[in-house]
Every structure is written in structure tokens, then in C-alpha cells.
Amino acid sequence: MYRKIMVPVDLAHLDVIEPALEKVADLARHYDAEVCYVGATSNAPSSVARTPQEYAQKLEAFAKERAQVHGQPVSTKTISSPDVVADLDDLLIKAIDDVGADLVVMPTHPPKHLDVIMPSHGGKVATHTKASIFLIRP
Amino acid sequence: MENHSNDDKPRGSNGDSEGIPAPSGAANLIDTDYVIGQDNITASPMGINVDLHGKVFLFSSIVIMLFVILTLALQDQMEPIFNSMFSFLTTNLGWFFILGANVFVILALVLIFTPLGKVRIGGADATPDFGYAGWFSMLFAAGMGIGLMFYGVSEPLGHYGTAMGGISMGEDGVRTDWAPLGGAEGDQAGAIDLSMAATIFHWGFHPWGAYAIVGLSLAIFAFNKGLPLTMRSIFYPILDERIWGWPGHVIDILAVFATLFGLTTSLGIGATQAAGGLEYLFGIPAGDTTLVLLILGITLVALGSIMLGVDKGVQRLSQLNMVLAALLLLFVIAVGPTLMIATGVIDNLIGYVTHLPAFSMPFGREDANFSQGWTAFYWAWWIAWSPFVGMFIARVSRGRTVREFLISVLLVPTLASVVWMTAFGTTAIDQVVNAGITQVQDADLELQLFTMLEQLPLSAITSFVGITLVIVFFITSSDSGSLVIDSITAGGKVDAPKPQRIFWALIEGALAIALLLGGGLAALQTAALTTGLPFTLVLLVGCYGIVKGLMSEPRSV
Lengths: 138, 557
Description:
The complex is a heterodimer of chains A (138) and B (557).
Chain A: E1 4-9, H1 14-31, E2 34-42, H2 52-70, E3 74-81, H3 84-99, E4 103-107, H4 121-126, E5 132-136
Parallel strand pairs in A: 1-2, 1-4, 2-3, 4-5
Chain B: E1 40-43, E2 50-53, H1 54-73, H2 75-113, H3 132-143, H4 145-165, H5 188-202, H6 205-224, H7 236-239, H8 246-282, H9 288-335, H10 338-359, H11 368-395, H12 402-433, H13 439-442, H14 448-454, H15 459-489, H16 498-551
Antiparallel strand pairs in B: 1-2
Helix pairs in contact in B: 1-8, 1-16, 2-6, 2-11, 2-12, 2-16, 3-9, 3-11, 4-5, 4-8, 4-12, 4-15, 5-10, 5-12, 6-11, 6-12, 6-16, 8-9, 8-11, 8-15, 8-16, 9-15, 9-16, 10-12, 11-15, 11-16, 14-15, 15-16
């Protein structure tokens, strides 16, 4: 029923998203879907990569590793922005259309009071897209 | 240093194992094992994530907080200390600031015309992140927004008054007047010429030269060399791997102090003017309570802008302000002495260039009060402010060539300053000279803009626009300032968690309140001056770093 699953990943904190990645693998096999890993990076050098191109390269390597795990076709998309912290939600919402995903799987945190001021990325994305969103809590 | 110049294979198929591909097209990454954020402390107290450079963050925030507490607790004792420090620094080290600023301007001008101007920030194939309108608005709003509102009327008028007054000698043979250069006693045309040239001098090449040098060097070392976006990176050609240790920490801590104090000086000036304007327009008393409430309120709005980020926050607000400022400027030109302003732009430009050598002479000045009290203070303030403006403009300038960058940061804003100062200054001087109106000259500094507007039609509307401009400039400064300080204290990480930016915006507000209550504007100015001094030294050394860095870059065609 789902053809393309988009999975936003943060290469700097792979340990945090590990549980979500396993569920992505199950879903991808179940629906025989393609998995598109999307990474957002700043234009300025970051802890993961010193240039957006280096980031893209690392994201591709990561996607290939995941393909070995679940055996489904993979693709990647690297988004770069001058202020990725603030723009992340908008960048992801746009990426959903750009890659043509019909399901987005994102790890998120349980609701907390701070959400009033700073809503979770998953929650924000879910209210602004037509695609289905699967938010995975730890 | 290794040269990776694989132009058309950005995906790094150059054989390096975990190879680092070039930035967009040819560039020359510095080979270092340092990983950005490796010295950072990460934690999430109370569900709030933080990711900070332990030493730089702790040291600078503790010192700043101590400073705020001391200044507030010992208000009476601090004010004389600030005042005597201010006069000590300007009297004895004025020449150093004047000399340093000259070096920055000359280097920036020379770079435009050398082949190094062809280097593109972010690699030969990088494309700009922001369009010209948004980019330029941000440059200007960050660079001098609040200052133009505060000094646009008051500075030309002040210089005009002192120039007309001519030279007066004290008993010890030292000049006691504040006239620029030799003054122009009783010579109206000469005094106008001199006062406008002096004002433009303070808002022209020199401030933008300092910004350009800092901005360009940061941009090159971050986007082309792959080093973290923080001040220490421009010292790589000199200190090598030592920049990751204490020498680098000290440079970054100095940058934090300079940025905070330079920024709060502007915020203090902006708050004073906005409070004055509100009293003038709506009769709200401009006491300490109003000031504090105003700073708190504006800081809250700034927090909202921080949440929206550069693209939707600072950029949109800056564009809004550009439009408002342009409307106000056109209005003043249209209803003010239009012909005088039009010819004034050319005359003042000529006057500026003619007087430039004398004004920028660091040694043997006879006009000590002017060159130390005005010029040296301004230079220290601009330099203190340069890491902030420089880092911010670096961050939004990826994809521009060095030549494009320098022309846009040095020449265009200088011309804009000439037009702005001429329009507001000429109108005010015209009111004094030709209409015999003296209210503007007699008004307090922060009210002179509003008093000048009162003599023109629709003053209720224009004054309101004026207050709005000051407040919005305040917001954009606070927002972009927090962004910059956050990235310095996070070891150059530009993607550190948002709450840190909020923390710095709150600190800026608190510091502005503490300094205003503790010692008024003198305290703010002294703080800017004190931090500007070591930073001038840092920048002079940085000049070498930037030339060295640019020399090793491939040039685009």
C-alpha cells in the first residue's frame, strides 16, 4: 500500500534513531517499498561533515548499509540550509513532496511542556503534509 | 595542507578512503583531524538539550553574569570607574584604534582589485543562499541599523555646532573644543562641509572595512577551508593545530565579550531612543521602568524571531525595515530641502574624500577631543561589533565571490550611509541655519530625530515609523547576535540546539538593562571600548591569516 517511505535521519545522533530504523526495515519489507533517507545539514562545517557534499556522501554510505539490512531499494536526499536548526520542519515538509513519499517514519519524543514553545519536529511535520506520518516514540 | 581540487566530482571519488570531497567545486580544505564539537559538552537537563564548548561557554557566561551582578549591586561605585576607564583608553590608545581601522580599510580595498577577488566563498561552484534584496537588507540591518537612527540627526548637528564654535584653548594650551580638525569658526558653509564629512567618515569605509575583514575571513575559513565557523579558525595559518587549544579558547572568549558588549551598547542606545520617542509621542515617562519594560518586551519578540530562524525571522524583519527606512528617507528628501540634499550628496562625498587623509591620521592630531572622543570611540565600538556583524554576514554570504562580497559590504553601504546622513543631517542643519529653529539642537541626543521630524509635515506618522524602525532593528540585532554568540560558544557548531540561542538573547537583554541602570550609556560605551582594544589586536593578526588563506584558494573565472 505504501510505495516510498521517507525517513529523516540525523547522522550526528544515529544511536537515538536506531529503534526507529528497525521499524522502518520491517515496514519496507512488509509493503515492499523503497526507502528514502533524508538528511538535513548546515552549509557551514558541522560535526558530521565539513561540506554539504561530504554529508551527501556519508548519507549515501549510510543508506547502502541499511539496504544490506532490509534488502529493499534505497535512495537519499541531502538538504542544506544556512540555518538548519530553525528551518528543519519546513525543509522536511518540502522534501516529502520532492521525493514523492507516501509514508514518513520519524522518531520523536514523548509530549512535554516545552512543546508549547518548541513543538516536536514530528508533530509539526504531521500537521503540514498530506502524506501519512508514523511517529515512533522511544 | 593538502590540495583537493576535483572540480567536477563533488561526490569525492578522488580515491581518499573516507575522503573529504571539495566544497562545491574547486577549493582548498585544510587538513585537520579536529572534529567540530569534539570538545563540546552535551546534556539534556530538564528535557532541554544543550551542546556547548565547555571552556568557552562556562568562562564567558560566568564572567558576564558576575559583571551584571557587580554593576547592578555597586551602581554608584561603578559609574566613576567606567568614566575614568573611558577617558584613559581614548586618550592614550586612540591612535591605535585609528591606525588599526586604516589597515582594515586599505586591505579590503586592495583585495577588491587583486586577482584574489575572484575566489568564490563556498567553492568555485557554490550558489548564493539568499537573493540580493534579502542579503543586502541583512547586511545593513546587522551593520548599523540602530546607530543610523540615533546619530543620523544628532551627529551632523553636533559637529556643526562645534565646528562653528571654532577652536578654544585651555590654560595649559590644550584644545578644549570638540571641533573636528581645525574647525570652521563663523564660516557656515565650511562648518556644514566639515560636519557632514566628519559624520560620513564615522559611518563610511572604516566601520564597513572592519566588518568586511572579519566577515570575509570567517567565510573563507569556514566555507572553503572546512573549519568551524568561529573566530579561532582565521588563526589557522598562524597558530596551526594550536587553535584547538587555549590560544583558540582565548580568541573565542574575547570574541564573545566583544560581541556582547558591542551589541548591548547598540541595544542600550536603541532602548534609550525608543523610550524617548514613546515619551515624546505618547507621553509615556521615559524612566528606568519604561526602559526595563521596553528591553524585556523587545527581547520577548526577539525570542519569537529566533524561533523562526534566519530565513523567516531575521531576513523578513530586515526586509521590512529596509522598506520602512527607505520610505522615511524618501519622505525626508521629498519634504525637506530637496535641492540642498541632492547637491549635498555629491558635495559631501567630495568633502569626505578630501578630508579623509586628515581625519584618519592616527598621530599628531590637534583636535584631541574629536579624534579621541568621537573617532576612537566609534572605531572601538565598530571593532567590538565586528565579530557579530562579520560572523553573521559570513553565514549569509556563501556563494558570493570575494570581489562581490567586498563591493557589497564596503562600497554599497558606505554610499547608503552618505545618502542617509546627508538627508537627515542636511535637513536638521537647514532648520537651524535657514529657518532659525533651534529646538533640534537643544533637544536631548535621543530626541533629536523626533524633534527634527516635528518640523516636517505628518510628524505623528513619521515619528511612529522612526520608533518602529528602532525597535525592529533592536529585534534583528538581538536575534542575529544570539545566533552568533551561540555558535562561538558551541565550538563553531551552527546546528546546536535552539534553547542556547534563547539563553543568549536573554543574557543580552539582562546585560543591556544592567549596564543602563548601572552606569548609563557611559558604562555601555566603556565596555565596548574595553573589549574593542584586545580585539583590534586580534583582527590585525587576522589580516595576515586572510591573505594567507585566500592565496591558497583556486580562483573562479
